[in-house]
């Protein structure tokens, strides 16, 4: 009886210890599962009972029963509690720390395949149903991955909605398809059907082996790349790591992180490419084009760094800087005795941002430049991606007399129904439709139809990418309003534009 009493007392001590340990961890893990905590406590108690009930233990150790119970308990706690650091409490899978330990046992990692699975747009589930519901989705998904086809050697929950699988053998396409099909099955949570989309990054260790930290970093690069991929036949976004992508990421990270300082250091500049009015062959407008002369990388194309700053969420900083530079240059031209309209490229995020548009209008009102001399360009594809929000921003700008142009027209798949309702002033036909214009009757017919359609809807038509006189002549005969391209002038500084105009070689509309 005395032994049983001490057993009960020690078990209470265990629960108190576990509860105290748990409360400390709860500060860091606010969404911990009470069910799993209870299961852990019950398992711990059961294992203590088993140790106490081993007769050989009492015979081998010169201890009282009470001392034996206490020593067994402490011994078990010392063994078990560190293991819990490697277990994800929500799913019961090993966590990132446990994964590194598991992969270390398979060093060197020269064979097999690593797969990193991200539940694409999982945040929407949390936003729609709440975090508790989201945790239940993760628990159900974690239970499913334990029964994954092809039997991965290691299955882990990395963090959030990311899960990792390690296969010791190469993963064939058929096996990968089976895995996706298995994981894409709908989940039923509280009578709510949840359909998942997978974002997968893959790493072939036979081609890209290395340390644990290195292969995990490369695997994450593949996962990030998958986000910009088109869905495959199963609806998943899948990307494989390719050699050299880690160096590309270092360059991209360097460009994004140094851009704000580059603006302050004067590494970026704005050039202006002429747009010629075909009705009088005079300079009608100029397009503002940003350039970056990097001290380490040399000239960095805007085609490279603009998408990066958009992805980093700082495109508004760049757009506003260009806008301010343009207003300053236009003010200088006015002081020199002439005015010139300038087209400035804004992203869909810029135009759909009410605060950004308000700042643009405030700066424009404070400048000596007439609102009609500002043309805001937005690409057709960006417009179609967020039509309603962008249209609101466009309408606000037009109310204040700012002109709007659709850039790269013909590449964004807008329908005629959308086109006739666009509150814009100008359509810029993409260079892709200029190539082959003289040799391809089909291309010529598309160009002619596009110009006629836009003109009938009341839009001015600019064709960009014009580099040869025969092409210019053809476009003039088709009824285009303005042409832009190296034939009429390469991008140049504001001072060069001023010299060109004041020399009497051109006039301004």
Automatic annotation (TrEMBL):
- Pfam families, per this entry? EAL, GGDEF
Stored CDD domains? EAL, GGDEF
Q: Where is the GGDEF domain?
A: 110-239
> Boundaries of each EAL domain copy?
252-505
Tell me what this protein is called. GGDEF-domain containing protein
GO molecular function terms here? cyclic-guanylate-specific phosphodiesterase activity
Q: Which Gene3D superfamilies match?
A: 3.30.70.270, EAL domain
Q: Which InterPro entries match?
A: Cyclic-di-GMP_PDE-like, EAL_dom, EAL_sf, GGDEF_dom, Nucleotide_cyclase, Rev_trsase/Diguanyl_cyclase
């Amino acid at each position: 009886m005395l032994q049983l009493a001490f057993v009960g007392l020690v078990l209470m001590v265990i629960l108190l210890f576990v509860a105290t340990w748990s409360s400390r961890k709860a500060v860091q893990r606010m969404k911990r599962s009470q069910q799993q905590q209870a299961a852990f406590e019950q398992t711990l108690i059961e294992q203590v009972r088993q140790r106490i009930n081993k007769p050989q233990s009492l015979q081998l150790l010169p201890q009282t029963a009470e001392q034996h119970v206490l020593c067994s308990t402490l011994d078990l706690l010392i063994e078990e509690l560190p293991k819990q650091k490697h277990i994800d409490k929500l799913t019961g899978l090993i966590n990132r720390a446990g994964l590194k330990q598991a992969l270390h046992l398979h060093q060197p990692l020269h064979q097999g395949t690593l797969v990193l699975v991200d539940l694409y747009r999982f945040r929407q589930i949390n936003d729609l149903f709440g975090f508790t519901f989201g945790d239940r989705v993760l628990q159900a998904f974690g239970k499913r991955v334990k029964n994954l086809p092809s039997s991965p050697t290691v299955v882990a929950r990395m963090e959030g909605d990311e899960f990792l699988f390690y296969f010791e053998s190469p993963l064939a396409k058929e096996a990968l398809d089976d895995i996706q099909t298995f994981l894409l099955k709908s989940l039923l949570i509280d009578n709510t059907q949840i359909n998942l989309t997978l974002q997968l990054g893959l790493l072939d260790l036979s081609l890209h082996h290395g340390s644990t930290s290195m292969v995990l970093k490369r695997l994450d690069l593949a996962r990030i790349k998958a986000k910009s991929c088109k869905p495959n036949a199963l609806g998943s976004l899948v990307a494989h790591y390719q050699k050299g992508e880690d160096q590309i990421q270092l360059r991209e990270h360097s460009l994004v992180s140094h851009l704000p300082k580059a603006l302050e250091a004067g590494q970026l500049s704005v050039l202006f490419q002429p747009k010629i009015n075909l009705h009088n062959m005079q300079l009608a407008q100029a397009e503002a084009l940003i350039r970056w002369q990097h001290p380490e990388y040399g000239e960095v194309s805007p085609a490279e760094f603009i998408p990066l700053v958009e992805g980093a969420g700082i495109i508004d900083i760049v757009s506003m800087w260009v806008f301010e530079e343009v207003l300053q240059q236009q003010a200088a031209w006015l002081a020199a005795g002439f005015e010139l309209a300038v087209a400035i490229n804004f992203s869909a995020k810029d135009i759909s941002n009410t605060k950004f548009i308000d700042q643009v209008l405030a700066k424009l009102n404070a400048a000596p430049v007439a609102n009609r001399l500002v043309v805001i360009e937005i690409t057709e594809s960006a417009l179609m991606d967020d039509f309603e929000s962008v249209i609101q921003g466009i309408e606000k700008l037009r109310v204040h007399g700012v002109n709007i142009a659709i850039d790269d027209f013909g590449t964004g798949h807008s329908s005629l129904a959308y086109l006739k309702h666009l509150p814009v002033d100008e359509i810029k036909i993409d260079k892709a439709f200029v190539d082959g214009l003289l040799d391809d009757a089909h291309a010529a017919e598309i160009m002619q139809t596009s110009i006629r359609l836009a003109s009938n809807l009341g839009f001015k038509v600019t064709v960009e990418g014009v580099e040869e006189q025969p092409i210019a002549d053809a476009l003039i005969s088709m009824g285009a309003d303005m042409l832009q391209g190296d034939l009429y002038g390469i991008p140049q500084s504001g001072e060069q534009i001023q010299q060109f105009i004041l020399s009497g070689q051109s006039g301004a509309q």
